[in-house]
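Hi R.,

Here's the chain you asked about this morning:
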Amino acid sequence: MLEPLITAPRDGLEAATRLGIAALLGLAVGIERQWSGHASGPTARFAGLRTFLILGIGGGLAGILSAVDRPIESAVLLGGAVTLVIAAFVVTMRRPEAEVDGTTEAAALVVLGLALVAGMGQLALASGAVAVVVLVLGEKQRLHGMVAKVGAAELQAAARFAVMALVILPVLPTTPLPFGGDISPRSLWMLVLLFSAINFAGYLARQAVGANRGYGITGVLGGLISSTLITLQFSRKSREEPQHAAALAFGTVAACTVLPVRIIGVLMVLSATVAQAALPFLIPPIMVGGVILLLAFRRRHEGGATAGDEAVERSPLHVAASIRMALLFWLALVALGYVQARFGTTGVYTSAVLLGLTDMDALTVAMARLGNGGDMSAIAATGVAVGVLSNTAFKLTLGLVLGSPGYRRWLLVGLAALGGAVGVGWLV
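And here is the predicted structure, written out as tokens:
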């Protein structure tokens, strides 16, 4: 049960403690404003260390008065402080040398509000909030730099994701779909959100690192979205740039190394039991791939945008692809239920082979659902391993058909090592 927001102090010591913490809240923000230079110089704002300290004390006192049923006195004190802040802002803006910046005034109002909350008895809430305020104020340059890197595509993607999560998800029905067990439209849409979030995270990572950091890094970050797509693009690229065949092959293997990492992450969210059972199959290729990644970084090639950039960066969320993956998952779940009832374990593994050729995310989610109860966790984990081997064989086939001779040679060695590492799980 949540405790009430407003609690009267039990004694004078508690009241003094609240007032002292409220003063410290104002002091913390005041120190940051003073240190950053906003309280001195020709463009100085109205408030520095002392002013923020006084605002903290005033807000804390208003909170205490409110807690002891003196609302009129509290409102007068708080209203007077807010009026002074607004008046100071107006006076400051009338200066000829003034810069239009309301950050300090906004911080003053926030300090008043947090000090009020502290005076009411919510000390932890007020202290945590002011820590965030000080951090935001102190990281001005870094935050502005991050915002400067955000383009229209990122903003549109974030807005779409917000609509998908906050508008569409709550209105979807929870009635189970036909033949899909307890899978409902809402749970399917949650999978769409999960896939879109993974795609968006990979996109942001690529934007942060940059496209010109080499094929190894491009492969790692591109693998967060689609290792198959990276394989396709890099295979074609190897014919255009045969001198970079080895680097492109290492980048492809790096993308394939990310796949078991993604699988473990999805399984941990959906079924910890299946995730634990799948670790013997997935940890060895990650370890082998780690060595290959070191080689990829050492063979870094600086230059223009890589082959995977266009395909990966064109759509940050990949909503349509995420919807297809969610629908494919539902179909896979229906198919798995049918083949399991008709053909037993052999049918599950056959489905894993076929689905691994097309989409590993859908297979991963389907196997997580299959083994979530615990009894089928070992079979589900083996199905994931079979799907990884099938997917690896498919990407190797793509590389051998589309890649240059040098690319094929390096790719064969790398993917064979990853596939062999997956097979180690059967020996454990």
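One quick note: Residues 43 and 95 are 9 Å apart (CA to CA).

Cheers,
M.
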